[in-house]
UniProtKB/TrEMBL annotation:
Domain MOFRL, residue spans: 335-436
Keywords: Kinase, Transferase
Official protein name in the record: Glycerate kinase
InterPro entries the record matches: GK-like_C_sf, GK_N_sf, MOFRL, MOFRL_assoc_dom, MOFRL_protein
Keyword Cell division: no
An MF annotation (GO) of this entry: kinase activity
Amino acid sequence: MASVCDRADLARTDAHEVVLDCLEAGIAAARPERVLADALSLSGDQLRIAGEVYDLHAYEDVLVLGGGKAAGQVAAALEERIGDAVDGGVVVTDDPVGTERVEVVEGSHPVPDDTAADGARRIRERAAAAGDRTLVFAVITGGGSALLPAPAGDLSLADVRDTTAALLESGAEIAEINAVRKHLSAIKGGRLAAAAAPATVVTLAFSDVVGDDLGVIASGPTAPDPTTYDDALAVLDRYDLAVPPEVRTHLRAGAAGDRPESPGPDADFGHVREHLLADAWTAIDAARAVAEGAGYETAVLSSRIRGEAREQGLAHAAVAEEIAATGNPVEPPAVVLSGGETTVTVRGDGAGGPNQEFALRAALELPEGAVLGAVDTDGRDGGTDAAGALVDGQTIADTEAAAAARDALADNDAEPFLADRGALVRTGRTGTNVNDLRVLLVE
């Protein structure tokens, strides 16, 4: 299982121990080597993926192309499962791993860099060169939007990078952010699949988005795009974003019909097969099994929690209060689980991430006997090296600490506050990414 650093210090009580066990089990269940071991089976040349069979002997070339935080791990696991059948490929990730046949390119996240742009360019070139007897495994995981930039038209990487930074700080939802990113890229919004035609494209997806929309995961390189240039411009206007003038010029040209639109729902994607291999439920189900094994009643609040992190933190604290006071929605001792992706509208200049803001806001209201763990399953919450935080009713024990906590929230500075109280959860890079996992225990 994925291990939490400094676990001995964090596991102050049996309840803290159970929450940590749940978090570790959830992350471990979503690791690519475990997921692919369950989802793929090979008999001779017959590869079965979630009930669909592919005859590897029917193809001259088998390539692995794609990107995202878990892309390197998926490529390695795929090599492990089908071995010599893989002829090569390229994936871009911020978590590189050793492979024998697939080239793993290390790029940066959440803001793209030159290495990622070059890797994305080479992925598109490999796709465009594929023929009708090529099988392309398209590895699409969370983080691919940043790791597969491929600026379109006359846009520079700096244009894409500045726009990405502005979007991430705006509080926009991921679907809105990706509507823009799709229309600044030569690979997103179904363009990778279009470039690969007539090759057979088999998408292997790990979802980090609420609702598991394959058009949103990594900005949908192999899925039809229901959004338009007009939608992208509307997002910039809705959040009054200052972006490079070249970006608005590019989008306006597309809206005027001077640039081709991304392949929409009516485009021919008959050569594409899609397999969603892991998502928030993968982690939630594993965490729930651990909690039940420890003797707790369980309930899943939702796998689709979204909105401002601090508001959702307060809502989870209210759930803990209700359980303690009335036994609703589940009698204590209980564990309530949730997944999804919260956002932070950045107004200060501190350090932290959505899960840390979530946990800090909840800690201000948690009742006695409640313990809450909130992590990003990729091991990186926001721009920090912490996965999230583990808090309880004593994390903020007096009015002075409460005032300091509110000041930290106002400055988006949750990380140092939580670090001072020994509440940060660190896992290192986990090799997967199925969004946030939260475990709320009430004794």
